[in-house]
Amino acid sequence: MKQTWKATSIIIAVSLLISLAGFASPLFADDSQEESLASDRFIVQFEPGMSGSDMAQVHQQLGGELEASIPELGVQVVSVPHHERFSKSQAYRSHSKVRCVEPDYVAEVVDVPNDPYFDDDHQWGMFKVEAAQAWDITHGSSNTCIAILDTGIDSSHPDLGAKVVAKTNFSGSSTAEPGNDHGTHVAGIAAAITDNGVGVAGLGYNSSLMNVKVLDDDGTGYYSWIAQGIVWATDNGADVINLSLGGSSFSSTLQQAVDYAWNHGVVVVAAAGNDGSSGYFYPAYYDNCIAVAATDASDNLASWSNYGSWVDVAAPGSAYSTKTDGQYGYMSGTSMASPYVAGLAGLVFSVASDSNGNGWLNDEVRSRIEDGSDDVGINVAHGRINAYQAVQGSSSPPPPPSPGQISGSVTDADTRKAISGATVNNGTTSAATNSNGSYTIPDVSQGTYTVTASANGYQSSSETITVASGQTATANFSLAREASPPPPSPGQISGSVTDADTGRAISGATVNNGTTSATTNSNGSYTISNVPQGAYTVTASANGYQSSSGTITVASGQTATANFSLAREASASNTMWVESITFIPTGSELQIKVKVVNPEPVRGAMVRLNLKQNGRSIYNGYGSSNSAGEATYRWPRATGGEYLATVTYLRHSQYTWDESQGVTSASYTLGGTQAVEETCDIVCQTATSETTNSV
Fold this sequence. Notes:
The protein is of the alpha/beta class. The strands form ten sheets. It has a seven-stranded parallel beta sheet, with helices on both faces. Strands 38-32-33-36-40 form a five-stranded mixed beta sheet, with no helix packed on it. The protein has a four-stranded antiparallel beta sheet with strand order 2-3-1-4, sandwiched between helices. The longest helix is centred in the middle third of the chain and has 15 residues, at 334-348. Helices cover 15% and strands 34% of the residues. It is built from eleven helices and 40 strands.
């Protein structure tokens, strides 16, 4: 069972132990470690769905220069000025469109110098792992390709050149050809030309080789180069990838690259490191790598080899193999142990079968290698490899890893109180916090996840964690409250109302926004004040006109304009008439109401009324119609008799009197016989603008 921890060093495993001066701690270690950060290159992983132009815009904004892309993993590599590496790393980390940022760590070969602990017999390791017996069963196939991701393979070597079927260069060197012996030595152990009467034999026998240069000639290389090499080898037909390199710093990008290869059917083999400890080494530590320790000729664990339950198998850690310029020689290290396993994987591919029907053989190949290992009493999971037992063994794949879970709590950053009902999501599954602010996401497959917590009224927060098989990963969140926006200021609605035909202002028109009304002035203008922000349907109406409505939006503290041009009602005309003359007796008073229409009530019409009693004229004066179209006249001391009211004059500024419509006079009989004694000079004067007139 493997568990990922945050590393504090970037030593990379291969086989020529080179000083790490000038390289430093990972970018996301604690603050005290960041002061030693020396890398000027970052690996940036963007949020899903980002286009190339979106990514380029982020780099332009933050000042990163694009160095390389690995689209299969959704990452890009950028470099920044050395003196700005701390500020730039923080800027990328805090950008909303960036999912993950990590240093482009520097890898280097790991080696152990020759010393008295190792046997000098040529290729003693092949006999230890029973290679000859395995070759009696299979020589493998040239269709099986082993990719050597290293410092390069000497393509002119007589024991290798004919085996190299493809090559590429991701390093800073100008060519894929090697500048040191390391990659060439590793390639010879895995698959030197065998049974050719020249040099050495490779355990992979007939397997082909792929030269993928990911380390410079000094044996160092960035993690991004290695990730690119893994993806390229996978996409170009590699069945096995050998990584005689590594480092003590965890990288999600490198892990994704290993997972990418495994999920495409590739067996990935990596050196466990030469620190002589149980400390984790990457990429060997990743679950989808076969981590390889080193043994000596007596099947003891090499004193400098890493070990522990996370290391899968061991293999001979010293070998006599090919070197550059057609030479041969000894080299030692877990870098030499790893290609033994890679070569064996090449053999096993020719005899394995798809026992679980998943369409791949890499799980069966790994199972045969691990299950066929000899228990020689060393501290690794499965023992030292045995080629003979692996090629003749069963193809039962290992059981799938048990799911784990993610749990933790969500609290308020200010009060430290639990936040109930917050949502926590790991990219595929969500959980809600309980009243104590706690949550659990169960049945989580092992792997690395970005977990995000969010709650109403709070800013979201994310954290990247790794879930190991059957384990619980913890992610606690402290959410900051969102800043409360200031309350919106009221706005207003203003505008004008005009006649659609003449364009003239309509005075006295009513404008309403659904809650408040305003009346237009003599210029036809209006204003509705103190209107809360929002959308409103505003309606304008006026006597004799068709109403008109429009929808507007009032912003905080702003004035929204709504102008209206009203059309006259179709039924209206330029004429008016008297619809009725009504007598209303009240005690000793007699009221006469004259209603003027066109056909709607006409306001402001000047009406002259002649009133007779028993044939004698008792009143002749003017009145003005109100909003109901009525002009009202009062005869305060009415006595019995026959009354006749006649409209003798009707005038308005907008209408003319059509005497052919309506009525012009009306009569009424009032009980009693007392004659009118006198008329009142005051009440007989011309009516004022009041709507009720005494007569």
